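Intended use. Records like the one below are meant for learning the mapping from a protein sequence to its folded structure. Do not use them to infer anything beyond what is encoded.
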Amino acid sequence: MYYEEHEHIEYHYDVGDQSRQQPVTAPTSSPPASAPPRPQTAQSGLQAVDPGAIRGCMYRFTYIWMRGGNSFWFWPVYVGRTSVSGFRWTGRRWVYTGIGLNRIDMFTC
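Structure written out for the chain above:
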C-alpha cells in the first residue's frame, strides 16, 4: 500500500488491487461537540482491536480511546490487518493519520 497527495485530494492504493483505488477525503463537517461516554465493557487482556469490528465504523464519526489515555474523534477510511487509517480531529481540522490496532483500547461509532 502506498499513499500520495495531489491538490488537497488524498489517495490510497492497494498495489495489485486496482478495483479499490478511490479518492479518500476528510469529512466535510466537524464531529459532535462532545465525546461519547466511555463504554463500561472491560476489554482487559486484548492484544489489539479486531479489524472486523472497527471496519463497521468506516466513513462514520468514531471516538477512539487509546492505550495510555489519549482520546479523539476519528473518521476511518481504511482498515488493514494490523492498522486503521483515516482522519483525526485536532479540535480545529481533520488530519490524515494511521493507527496500529494494538494501540487502541476502545472505540465507538
